[in-house]
Amino acid sequence: MISSDSVAAVATQPAHPPPTLLSLFVIWLKIGATSFGGGVATQLLIYRNFVSQRNWMTPETFAQDWAIVQFAPGINLIALAVTIGRRFGGVAGVIVSVLGMLAPAIAITIAMTALYVRVRDQPAVTGALRGITPALVGLSLAFMWRLLKGPMSALKQQGRPAFAFGVALIAIAAAMTVLGAPVLLAYLAGAVGLGLWYGLRRSPPFTPAQNEGH
Amino acid sequence: MDWLTFFLIFLKASLLSTGGRGPFPYLYTDMIAHGWATPAEFPAALTVGEISPGPNGLWVVSLGYLTGGLMGALLASVAIALPPLLVLVVAQVHDRLKSYKATKGVLDGLVLGIAGTSIIVLGNLFVVNGVNAVTIVIAVVCTALMLTGRVPTWIMIAGAAIVGMLLLQG
Predict the structure, then answer these.
(1) ipTM value
(2) Staple partner for A162: which of A158, A213, B147, B163, CB 3.0–4.6 Å?
(3) B107 touches chain A (CB under 8 A)
(4) Which residues of B touch A130 (CB under 8 A)?
(5) Considering CB atoms only, which of A105, A130, A187 is closest to B58?
(6) Which of A42, A92, A35 lies closest to A69, judged by CA?
(7) B141: chain A residues, CB-CB within 8 Å
């Protein structure tokens, strides 16, 4: 990939030829098909392919892209494929990147689910699933706890009433869900409640950069 | 099967959430309310998502297959592929909005709302699955291990599967 004269020409800033659409597709295909182990493993593979191995992106650009995709709807890793794909190939880059990342992974996911459907009624499988379910609940609760840390410690710094207000918003969303309110409405209760709280606060304005990128 | 409604449920869940597990509360409430999914299909789909390659969020495709066969899986795939495209818009909007004090409030408040909702939805899944000493211990241990951040999730899931096979059959 790295031609000797391009390295010699710009020794201080290695200029790697940008990826073609085909190489972009092949790289995402590889990432999608080999990234067993979920989100962090996939993120690492992407970093390796675009930053450490080929220098197509600086660690800073990668970090910026990663911070932005946190705000995107849907799966963050797909949004990352979108931003990186556009960077190197515009609309076509987006399409080959998303297709490459998802096509093999989706095919394998469907095949594994079909396999599960065949054995789902066996006692060993139902038993295993009964054990996995509380594990997934625990993992999700821990994940939720980590997610809450940023917003709740920011409220804590503002004093006890702010913290109590935050806890109340969590309780309100929970109560709404118990009562059968649509999920979006419960989310909005939290967003509007705390949005008003921050918007109407008289204390010095918050620096918004503080809690991004976790 | 009303495929349009099916697709819109999946699209809404992906569009109005972020991250791989984000669609879970929407899909859990909507799909069960329509009678199209059973609670047990969710941990099955989530497990496939954990062990298959690619983003964990592909568990949604697995759920699509479990509830709607190949057609369901394809519709679910389209539903999760579209919303992340909005990242291109989000980048610009976020740049413009981040100067407002209320923006941080809205984003943080969203997390509070998600937390409150998720606690109930996860609690429901836990209860439906069966509350006993074994399931309680599994949940507590996995929460604690996950908080330490040192044990890969697949090891916890594999461990829980083995415990379940041995102690939770029948």
Answers:
(1) 0.91
(2) A158
(3) yes
(4) 129-130, 135, 164, 168
(5) A105
(6) A42
(7) 138
